[in-house]
Design goal:
Number of strands: 6
Strand content: 5-15%
Order of helices and strands: EEEEEEHHHHHHHHH
Distance between the termini: 65 Å
Strand order of the largest sheet: 1-2
Shape: globular
C-alpha cells in the first residue's frame, strides 16, 4: 500500500520567510532523499544530529505528538512547510528571522496544528544555546500568556520537571517584549500574570503566580 507524506521542495520566499503553494509536494515512501534543499538566500537545509535526543523515527505513522501520529499534522494542508522541514531534520533553527517565524507559529489559533508547533518550540528550547537562545523566549511567553491551561498540561506531562525548568529559564533569559524594562522584573511579571489569568480559570491563579515568579524573579529589590 502506498503511503504519502509532505516533503519540502523548496522555499521560494521573500526573505526566506513565507511559503508558496508550490513549497510542498506529496511523494511515495517513508524516508527523505538525501538531496540538500536551499532557499534563495543560500540557507542550507540538511540532516544533522541536532535531533539526537528527540527520539524520532521520521516514520510519520510511528512518531506521535500530543497523542496523534505526526501524519495527522504534516498532511494537514495548512501545515507550515518549515515546520515539516524541522520534523524531518531538514531545517536546523538558528539565529535568524526564519527561526523566529517558525517559533511564533506556536501561538496559532489553529487547534489542530498548535500541538505540532508547540512541540517544535519545546524542542528548540531544548537545543538552545548561544545566539539561538535569544529566540524561543518571547514565543514561549506568548504561548504561556495565551494558552496557560494547555501549557500547564504540557509541562505536567513531563514528570522529570525538566521541561518546566527549560520553559521558565528560557522566558527568564529571552522573554522580554520590546516595551519591557528588563531591570524591572516585577512589572514584567505582573503583565505576564495578568495575561495568563485573563485566559484561564480562577483555579489556576496561584499556579500562574508561581510560574511567572519563576520566569521573572525579584532580582532587583528596587523594582516598583
Amino acid at each position: 500500500m502506498k503511503s504519502y507524506f509532505w516533503i519540502i521542495l523548496g522555499f521560494i520566499l521573500f526573505s526566506c520567510s513565507k511559503k508558496t503553494d508550490s513549497d510542498i509536494k506529496t511523494l511515495e515512501g517513508k524516508t527523505f532523499d538525501s538531496t540538500t534543499r536551499k532557499c534563495n538566500a543560500q540557507k542550507t537545509f540538511t540532516s544533522n544530529n541536532y535531533q539526537e535526543g528527540f527520539h524520532l523515527t521520521h516514520n510519520i505513522d510511528v512518531d506521535s505528538i500530543d497523542g496523534k501520529p505526526v501524519k495527522f499534522y504534516i498532511e494537514n494542508k495548512n501545515c507550515d512547510s518549515l515546520a515539516i522541514a524541522f520534523y524531518f531534520g531538514k531545517y536546523h533553527p538558528t539565529d535568524d528571522n526564519l527561526t523566529a517565524n517558525l517559533l511564533n507559529l506556536s501561538s496559532t489559533n489553529d487547534q489542530k496544528l498548535r500541538p505540532f508547533y508547540r512541540w517544535i518550540l519545546d524542542k528548540t528550547i531544548e537545543i538552545s544555546d548561544g545566539a539561538l537562545g535569544e529566540y524561543p523566549g518571547v514565543p514561549a511567553r506568548k504561548y504561556a500568556e495565551k494558552f496557560p491551561e494547555e501549557l500547564f498540561n504540557f509541562l505536567d506531562s513531563d514528570t522529570s520537571k525538566i521541561r518546566y525548568s527549560n520553559w521558565t529559564d528560557i522566558i527568564s533569559y529571552s522573554g522580554f517584549y520590546e516595551n519591557d524594562d528588563y531591570k524591572k522584573p516585577k512589572l514584567i511579571r505582573k503583565k505576564m500574570e495578568a495575561e495568563m489569568i485573563k485566559n484561564s480559570s480562577s483555579k489556576l491563579q496561584s499556579r500562574i503566580a508561581k510560574f511567572t515568579l519563576d520566569c521573572f524573579p525579584d532580582v532587583n529589590k528596587t523594582d516598583q
